[in-house]
Amino acid sequence: MIVIGLMSGTSVDAIDAAAAEFLWRRTEIVLRPLGHAEFPWPDGTRARLLDALPPAGTSMAEVCALDTLAGEAFGAAADRAVRELAGGRADLVVSHGQTVFHWIEGGRARGTLQIGQPAAIVEATGLPVISDIRARDVAAGGQGAPLASTLDALWLAGTDGRRRAALNLGGIANITVVGRAGEPVLGFDTGPANCLLDVEAARLSNGQRNSDTDGALALSGTVRPDLLARLLEDAYYSQPAPKSTGRELFHTDYTRERLRGLPPASGPDLMATLTELTARTVAAACAAHGVVEVVASGGGTRNPALMAALRRNLAPAVLLTSEERGLPTDGKEAYLMALLGFLSWHAVPGVAPGATGSRTPRVLGRISPGDAPLRLPDPAPAPTALVIEPAGPSALPAADGPGPSPADYPPAATPDLPSDRA
């Protein structure tokens, strides 16, 4: 199958898209990256999305409008991804949507809301769409995050017994701790990555900067120990894993409220301190689980100040980027969405056992049928590994224009699957 994955994280900085070809090789999944791209949000839509996030209030009319506008933006991104990344044909679109609220009560996830009307994506592409990826895991008692543990567990598990962590540096930082193949996987949000930095960068530049991607502001400042100590007092960091968080806690006024009563900090010093906060909390989480190697991805990897702080705090653990292991740092989350959709299409649970705290791993998402008749393949066995191979000539049938429905041909590994699979 050729699958388009769409992702927009808590920073709401852009829509990430990736195209991947997947096939089964017995119980291994082969992922061949076809390309990834970043598409800007339409003028005004990003600002409206940010204005609706906590602690701001909003109306149901605005939620309805944003659901439609976000869906149209995701649809346009999917259409471009099919044409520009997948050579004009694809079989399935998987959209994470835009998170606008993640309901945590007493340490438990009670609900999660991602908007971006999937019907608009179907209309733009004619393809079936899998959306609402997180809700089933929450309904089963999980945190609904981080779902990257699914990809990470198949990708990074080794035979040497060494513990590795996949680190995603989006608006929120999350890690997946992976040990020996077959061992339980643990995934959780460690705290803020870019979300607090983005807010302060915009304030310091009077809205001229959306982030401190180049690290210039932080590199020109000095960490304030008193500010850092106050920030580290937040109870979230001492909560046991699995756990998840978002802008409901680390909102636009969080830093100002948290530091109230302390001597004011210069802009560069505040940015340096927030950068150190992310590095310290990530490093503490990794050290608590005996991690010796960290593989980072996400927008934060483009920030040299953050990466330098991470290397310093993680030592002696080694810090790599996902690029060094075959997946682009900017595209990994979109490839994750494509993988989750591929698993759901084949009725395979999309959560590694124990990773999010759910009682039982569930098949994720809901399917919106495309223009072709919807016929799903037989369920596949649980995968044992993810193999990333360079993209080459497609193993799938050639087509003029958009590709056929996935039901028009069987999964590549169907002949190798056990005959008694229901």
Automatic annotation (TrEMBL):
Q: Which residues are in coiled coils?
A: none
- Give EC number(s), comma-separated: 2.7.1.170
Compositionally biased residues, Pro residues: 403-413
State the UniProt keywords alphabetically. ATP-binding, Carbohydrate metabolism, Kinase, Nucleotide-binding, Transferase
**Residues holding ATP:** G9, T10, S11, V12, D13, A14, I15, D16
Organism's domain of life?
Bacteria
From the Swiss-Prot or TrEMBL record, what is one GO molecular function term? kinase activity
Is the Transferase keyword given for this protein?
yes
Q: Which catalysed reactions does the entry list for this protein?
A: 1,6-anhydro-N-acetyl-beta-muramate + ATP + H2O = N-acetyl-D-muramate 6-phosphate + ADP + H(+)
Stretches the record annotates as Disordered: 353-422
UniProt record similarity statement: Belongs to the anhydro-N-acetylmuramic acid kinase family.
Protein name (database record): Anhydro-N-acetylmuramic acid kinase
Q: Which species does the entry assign this protein to?
A: Roseomonas elaeocarpi
